[in-house]
Amino acid sequence: MIIDIVYGFPSRKMCDDATSNKINLGGSVKELKSPDYKCKSCGYEFRELDRFFKN
After folding, report:
1. 49 vs 12: CA distance, rounded Å
2. How many domains does the chain have?
3. At residue 38, what are phi and psi to the nearest 5 degrees?
4. Residue 54 and residue 52: Cα distance in Å, rounded?
5. According to DSSP H, which parts of the chain are helical?
6. Within a 10 A sphere around the Cβ of 25, how many other Cβ atoms?
7. Contact (Cβ atoms closer than 8 angstroms) between residue 33 and residue 47
8. Structural domain boundaries, residue 19
């Protein structure tokens, strides 16, 4: 399952969602090459969904 990596100061809801593994907290600052998504199965982090799902 693919989840979003969310950046910035987390709200209470974001903390709850991270605890429930609905999102991944990426830290307070998003760099240009920071990943946007994470695979919960293998832990791989990536930026673009279309590249992840290419055959």
Report:
1. 27
2. 1
3. -140, 135
4. 6
5. 12-19, 49-52
6. 16
7. yes
8. 2-52
